[in-house]
Amino acid sequence: MSAAVTVERVVTERGELVLRRHGDHHEIISNGVFLMDTRAGESERLLVRAALGAVPPGARLLIGGLGVGFSLAEAVRSATPAEIVVVEIEPTLVTWHRTHLASVSGNALADPRVRVVTADLVRWLRTTDETFEAICLDTDNGPDWTVFAGNAALYDETGATLLRDRLTDGGVLTVWSAATAPDYVERLRAAIGPVTTYRVEVARGEPDVVYLARRVDNPSAASRPSLADDLPGSTLPQVEPDRLAGGAHPEQVPHSGDAPVRGT
Question: Please, are residues 11 and 105 in contact by the beta-carbon 8 Å criterion?
Answer without folding.
Answer: no
